[in-house]
Here is the input.
Amino acid sequence: MTFPNHVPRRLAGARRLTALTGLILLTAAAGCGTPAGIARGAAPTVTASAGTAIVLTNFRVSGIPETLAAGKLTVSVANKGVGDHELLVFKSDLAPAQYPVDATGTVLEEDPSIRKVSDGGNISAGKSQQRTIDLVAPGKYLFFCNLPGHFKYGMYR
Here is the structure.
């Protein structure tokens, strides 16, 4: 990286550090929206271990592994955010950026290109709900909050 002669070396180093930090943050943020895949030929029932929960916070869904065994998944969905959230699960081969949305970025839940697998209703801040999610068919599943603006701002996994 080249800087003009009038830039002191300590500023040039700070700019490199800032650029590197930005790259790391972009890389980390890019991983937040990956759909979970379901392995073929796996056990018919999966139950999350005691204390395991899908956690909803402000514009983030966490606690879902990259790959899950096909079957029924029983989990606790905890809202640790400051407002209401919901957890919807859809099956589709579409990438999250290709999901059908309206002008506000809210997923069009009835679109035939995606199939709703689970919808447990809104969860108030600080509350949780038990949920069994039917992931019997192998494929790609997207877990997300579809309250206004939430999907648009990356609240999916």
